[in-house]
Amino acid sequence: MYGIKENIDIIKTTIEDTHKKSNFAKCLPPKLVAVSKKQNEEKVIEALEAGQKYFGENRVQEAQKRWPLKIHQYENLQIRLIGPLQTNKVKQALDLFDVIETIDREKLAKEIANNFNENVKTKSFFIQVNTGSEIQKSGIEPLQSDSFIKYCKEDLRLPVVGLMCIPPLDEEPAMHFALLKKIADRNNLSELSMGMSNDFKEAIKFGATSVRVGSAIFGDRE
Question: Which of 7, 58, 49, 62 is nearest to 32 (CA)?
Answer without folding.
Answer: 7
